[in-house]
Amino acid sequence: MIKIYTLGGYEEVGKNMTAVEYDGEVVIVDMGIRLDRVLIHEDVEFQKMSSKELRKLGAIPDDRPIRNKKVVAIALSHGHLDHIGAIGKLAPHYPDVPIYGTPYTIRLAKSEIKGEEYFEVTNPLYETNYGEIVQVSENLAIEFVQITHSIPQSSIVVIHTPEGAVVYACDYKFDNNHPYGERPDYKRLKELGREGVKVLIPESTRVAEETKTPSEAVAKMLLEDFFLYEGLEADGLIATTFASHIARLQELIEIANKMGRQAIFIGRSLAKYTGIAKQLGLIKMKGSRVLRSPNAVSKVLKEVSQARENYLLIVTGHQGEPGAILTRMANGELYDIGKRDTVVFSAGVIPNPLNIAQRYALETKLRMKGVRMIKNLHVSGHASREDHRYLIRMLNPEYIVPAHGEFRMLTHYAELAEEEGYMIGKDVFISRNGHVVEIP
């Protein structure tokens, strides 16, 4: 019998963690954090907080249901904090258990571990290539299948068991025209469908949207259509997007170069994500600068304010997060933002009440200063309804356990599954954090 422990991400978007058990052995997939619960964001060092404090706040998964299990491996699907952010807090509960992921994911995980102040993480970390099947016990093996998302080297994680494959698809979309060549491995996904998929564990964040999620090429076109317009009249140009969205950052660098401006990255998380991407050859930083220290930020922004037409500032703060660079600018710090400046939001608002409120406050402050705002030059990295339908049809799983979403999102996925011939309670199971789904 296969058991699916739904530990985190089954009541919210965030703090993702799932465990798959077969014959007494367990593979954990992801150890994420829920950022909004502690008013933190990509620029804040939450490693300084205790795991007890974070768990009490509901910011990290409660892994106690599997603490005494025989865990043989930890697999990381991709490098977003809602999938790897709790690794420094939770991996020490499973000392010396190996952690696997793609090279970019593992290096980001190492960065999180390096900053951990409460625990010593002794787990070995292994960079795994697409297509490689890693035998982690006599009965269990893991595989990383290439998929597209809003961060490089994302994976669909496959756990091979004697009863069939357990396929964990959190997060993904089917991007067939990615500007920098990333492409889903349709061939392998179809092979898995023929070989036999026992359980599919898919994200459900945008399943209610009755469309197919557009390609990143659309976002690139939206940005170029605005920035490279011959009639553009703007002195100060400021763009904000997810620090981990390397493709989007590459697009902004290329746009700055075409405009004859210098791209300047400001924010600790932007330095981290682009630095690791550059090591792996995932981004070309030609013509750009990255500011790391507070002194450098203050000095350079003074220079920029005197010749705004020469620069494109790329900053953190698209959700209005306290302490992020754009929020500080709106508060009158660092840079005299005002009527001469245009702010481009190349990110949507993450749909929870805290983010919506923070973003509203940020926009209000910018508007009061006379800043021109261009919003939503963006496409999502998450699968919409037709992406999900295609995955179900490719894999033809026996059972489905929707994940990565609020309860309403999980039920929207169940509705789609019923359209495809499944039945809630029979072969589609809606779960909650801390529960276990037993697969017959």
UniProtKB/TrEMBL annotation:
Signal peptide: none
Keywords: Cytoplasm, Exonuclease, Hydrolase, Metal-binding, Nuclease, RNA-binding, Zinc
Boundaries of every Metallo-beta-lactamase domain copy: 14-221
Keyword field contains tRNA processing: no
Entry EC number(s): 3.1.-.-
Amino-acid positions noted as binding substrate in the UniProt annotation, renumbered to this chain: 378-382
Entry's cofactor comment: Binds 2 Zn(2+) ions per subunit. It is not clear if Zn(2+) or Mg(2+) is physiologically important.
Primary location: cytoplasm
Locations listed in the record: Cytoplasm
Cofactor(s), names only, from the UniProt record: Zn(2+)
Gene3D superfamilies for the chain: Metallo-hydrolase/oxidoreductase (3.40.50.10710), Ribonuclease Z/Hydroxyacylglutathione hydrolase-like (3.60.15.10)
SMART domains listed in its UniProt record: Lactamase_B (SM00849)
Function: An RNase that has 5'-3' exonuclease activity. May be involved in RNA degradation.
Name used for this protein in its record: Ribonuclease J
Organism, scientific name: Pyrococcus kukulkanii
Lineage: Archaea, Methanobacteriati, Methanobacteriota, Thermococci, Thermococcales
